[in-house]
Amino acid sequence: MLQTFEVPTLIQLLGDAKGYFDWAIRISDGDWYGSETFYQAPLYPYFLAVLIAVFGPSITLIRVVQMLLGVAGVALIGLSGRKLFSKKVGLVSALMLAVYPPAIYYDGIIQKASLATFLLCVLVTACVYLQSEMRRRYAILAGVSLGLLVLTRENSLLWTPLIPLWILFGIGETKWRGWILVACFACGLASIVVPVAARNASLGGEWSPTTFQAGPNFYIGNNLQASGIYVPLVAGHETPMHERADAQRLAEQAVGRELSSREVSQFWMSRAWEETQQAPGRWLQLMVAKTFMVFNRYEVPDVESMYVFREYSFPLQLSRIWHFGILCPLGIWGLIVSRGDWRRLWLHYLLLLSMIAAVVLFFILGRYRNPVAILFVPFAAAGAVDLYQRLHEQQWRSIGAAGVVLALSAAFCNITVYEERSLQASCYMNMGIAASKAGDLPTGIRLLKKAIAEFPEMAEGYVNLGRAYMMSQQPGRAAQCFQNALILDPRLIGVHLQLGEAFELSGMRQQAIEQYQRALAFDPNDSRASEALNRLR
């Protein structure tokens, strides 16, 4: 943590991190009930709000608490591996998660992935202990942990019918006892999600146990232009403050009337299905591509990237050799060697497969894929222990079969499926923006130059570098950056105004007038451009 203490995006929060933190501040200031239905998963900002109310708004304290949750998750996954397989597998499971770089990374940033990982480890452990001891308290714990997980990672709602079915048909208890355990699980789950559903109903007139974000997210992941990764409904509006407003505004414009939160979600869900029906072949290709993405070694970044953070952190350097592209093949081998015990393990198979399907059906981010990695860990540990035993016993024929499986799955998981340079460049750009906003202009300019060097075709990089030069009183360099941005993308809105301001500060009056005129041609209501023209004429 100390090595990443001065990472710009931890000093000046951006994107979802800023949205969660600002939301938590409002809650801790007294807005505990809120005034509208939840659009984003609410548990993480409330978790932050409790920490802020008790300890103050300290990013460092939040990171320390998340790391403690990470340590607890390591212990829990170790207990799960031990109960599912053996003491050796439990130890290897704990070790694998303890040094897994994505888990370390997500514990260290302001994102809900850390809390979601801990709750998933609690859920898995509760189910493992419920299976072996069949006690009511473990059924209640499974329900409570799943309810909390639903309020953190909405797609885990898919698991709510699986666990009761597993209790009734998978743990070998009498029918009456099974129904009692199901009731305990349901009570634990209901104690968490029913109050949230009632709260949403009181504010929006519609019951929902989680949020009303599924429709827009499904559309983002499945429209005719979808690429498999996140692209906002409106270009440049990637932040939480815009996501809900854009989804509602565009839906209401299309329908011609005001819509409730549920109607907005249904609108985008329907539009997504309409577009998939227009080109079903293209949609199937997209599903195949997203399946490759889910199993790929690469951690798709959001605003921040693990691969940028590892330049500051020694533990994250392990990501060069220990990543999902190694974990997954070991997990596949673990699934194969444990197949004879499927009657005892089928719940864990279903949890894993349903989470993979849930990620594929929407869009891919590394933190969305992280639950898949956590569910793979005990199986990867079982696979690694099995390989060690075969090597120790010199079972060369079976080792050859294992080698074929591992080689094929490793090839599948490690092929390049992303434009990694552009994603990496975007993260450098975001760090540069954060450093500039925090007042560290030399660092901001250095990072923005690095973003452009990584991916010179990124017009937004030149725009933001130009803004940083303007803030550092270098209008000549800023003008060159804005011109480069317009060469790459002439459709950029607002850049002509900024170029005009750069020309004006450089003493290039006529060029400034031309750019202000172009800015008004794009947007006749641009008051800054109008004022500038009146000033120069």
Automatic annotation (TrEMBL):
* Coarse class of the protein's main subcellular location: membrane
Cell compartment(s), UniProt: Cell membrane
Q: Where are the TPR repeats?
A: 459-492, 493-526
Could you give a single Gene Ontology term from the biological process aspect?
lipopolysaccharide biosynthetic process
What is the membrane topology here? Answer: Multi-pass membrane protein
Looking at the UniProt entry, the stretches that span the membrane are 46-77, 89-106, 112-131, 179-198, 321-340, 346-365, 397-418
Any one GO MF term held by the record is:
pentosyltransferase activity
Q: Which residues form the Glycosyltransferase RgtA/B/C/D-like domain?
A: 40-191
Mind telling me what this protein is named?
Tetratricopeptide TPR_2 repeat protein
